[in-house]
Amino acid sequence: MSGVVALGWALMALTHPTTTYHFAPVVVVAVLALYVRARTEHPVKIRSGLYLSAAGALIALITTAGVESLDALRGPTLWGPGGAPAESLLAIAAGFLIGLTATVTSRR
Fold first, then answer.
1. DSSP for residue 19
2. Half-sphere exposure (CA, 13 Å, Cβ side) for 70?
3. How big, in percent rounded to 5, are the helix, strand and coil portions of the chain?
């Protein structure tokens, strides 16, 4: 799941390098954990949640590094300083927390 979303993000970034896809790293990180949680009836163990979120984060980090190395993260940021790569790192951290929280909490 995360790989498919990451591939889509990379293709969009490569074809439109001055456009920033601000929430793509969040989705790349969290989608695997959210998918697993949607398919299970009960919350998963915290260790599994950590593994799922870490796998998504690794995919997002590799994608960020690849897209940045091809100079395709030239767009504007939401909060100014640091550039798009720094914003992507913050988005990856946010996605990690979202994915982890979603997997270990119960649905109401």
1. S
2. 15
3. 70, 0, 30
